[in-house]
Amino acid sequence: NVRLVESGGGLVQPGGSLELSCTASGFTFSSSAMSWVRRAPGQGFGWVAGINGAGDSPYYLDSVKGRFTISRDNAKNTLYLHMISLKAEDTGVYFCRRDSTAARGQGTQVVVSS
User: What is the pLDDT of residue 77?
Assistant: First the structure.
């Protein structure tokens, strides 16, 4: 069974930082392109960042470029999202997603507020 478990969310002040993690199991993680998507309050899912299986080709939503870094450790079957200079508009529930099937976990909430 495919399982994705996100963690690392929380409440942070504007300008702060967080690192999200996603532990994967039930599929060949190292050959799977992965993404982070988020659901802002009252909105649908929006793609944030993605990375190929090898981890050497990340890509980002324009509004998070320079602030978010997606990475992965294939030996640990773990996907990361390092976020700095957080803004109120980054608030939402963040999910990791296996791109080939759109499977995602239960999400972890990020609230950026003073």
Answer: 98
